[in-house]
Amino acid sequence: MTGIEPPPLRNDCFALPAGVEWTPVDTALDMLRDRLGPVTGVEMRLLSQALGGVLAADAVALRSSPPQANSAVDGYGFAGAVPEGAHVMPLEEGRAAAGVPFDGVLPAGRALRVLTGAALPEGVETVILEEDVTLGTGEIAFRGPLKRGANTRKAGEDVAEGAVVLPAGRRLTPADLALLASVGLGVVPLRRQLRVAVLSTGDELVEPGETAGPGQIFDANRPMLLSLIHRLGHAPVDLGRVPDDRTTLRATFDRAAAEADVILTSGGASAGDEDHVSALLRAAGAMQQWRIALKPGRPLALGLWQGKPVFGLPGNPVAALVCSLVFARPAMAVLAGESWSVPQGYDLPAGFEKRKKPGRREYLRARVRDGRVEVFASEGSGRVSGLSWAEGLVEIGDDACHIRPGDPVRFIPYGSFGL
Ligand code: AMP
Ligand code: MG
């Protein structure tokens, strides 16, 4: 029962070194970084369609920006510098405006009306602000000193032609679109969107809005994971809920592999009787149980199903979100062609006390109030309300520690994870 065609991923891409009991978070991340690569094709897209896309190649400036020296203000231009003191200059006929150049050469000792963004005509090196000038008939009066080049922008001072403005792997922001446009790029090569299949497993799960019988709970993970994928810039593929039944799960995995580039499951990823995700992957010979030294988060089941990477997340919503943010997010980013990025955290004083044993990293649901980091009252892994209460996570290192109020702790806002 193989049928596993790994390219571009290696069949053993999730294999862990033998004999390792618990893998530190950073080691696990290094392995994902080293062994995964982009799996999506490339297409040319208009800038107007490019927001949120991932650059497939370095973007190179077709033209310098600004393309020529120009005026930074509305005012009057002339040659050279002027010393301290009062000056009067005769005004030249005509003007230079943005997009409407002055057709001629300005003689030394004369001034010309120039507007913001106007290309500096030959003979203009310096511009004086119109607010600093008294306008007479056919002449202007003002006070020096003024350095040569004052109130002007040099050609190429922002970007030089041929420079790499954005690297391959960049997910484009609105500001990036401005930059690409400013250097003449109207079309860019982007990665096709990564399709991520999401399915929930468990006999106890019911769709929210439906009637739930005794022992049943509503599927909270699927709406969370589908929207998370959307926020991260990928295309979510909803494969619904699957009962704890191996045949149905196998059929759903087959569908997922056909319709998506990555498969995210929640629940059934441990080694228990009803942990069918791990059992199925193991039976297919493509399963690795990653025991990551991380709280919250039980073992993560990683594998390939028909060549498509599967992330078997824990069922507990808190663990599912933390494992998604810490592992699935960077892994999906690499598969989507994005460059590796570490979520930006901030060291802020703790508003809580906590003791922790060595050996695993912890993430607490947290938010910042009055400059201090608060953590959710309960560390219970089933407390969905705490996920929503929180505005980020506090990362507590792998070593033992005793955090007291006022000690610096690392707060990572949800926004740093791309939420
Ligand atoms: P499991 O990993 O399947 O053993 O599930 C661990 C815990 O998470 C159990 O209490 C499950 O009922 C719960 N759980 C699993 N999947 C979901 C889900 N999609 N939404 C909410 N809770 C879930
Ligand atoms: Mg289950």
The CATH C-level name of the largest domain is Alpha Beta
CATH topology of the largest domain: Molybdenum Cofactor Biosythetic Enzyme, Chain A
The residue-averaged pLDDT reads 93
Q: Supply the CATH superfamily name of the largest domain.
A: MoaB/Mog-like domain
| Proportion of residues in extended strands | 25-35%
**Overall number of strands:** 28
Query: Strand order across the biggest sheet?
Result: 7-4-6-5-9-8
Number of domains: 4
What's the overall geometry? Answer: elongated
The molecules bound to the chains, other than polymers, are:
adenosine monophosphate, magnesium ion
User: What oligomeric state best describes the polypeptide chains here?
Assistant: single chain
Low-confidence stretches: none
Reported CATH architecture of the largest domain: 3-Layer(aba) Sandwich
**Derived structural class:** alpha+beta
Question: Could you describe the largest sheet, including whether it forms a barrel?
Answer: 6 strands, mixed
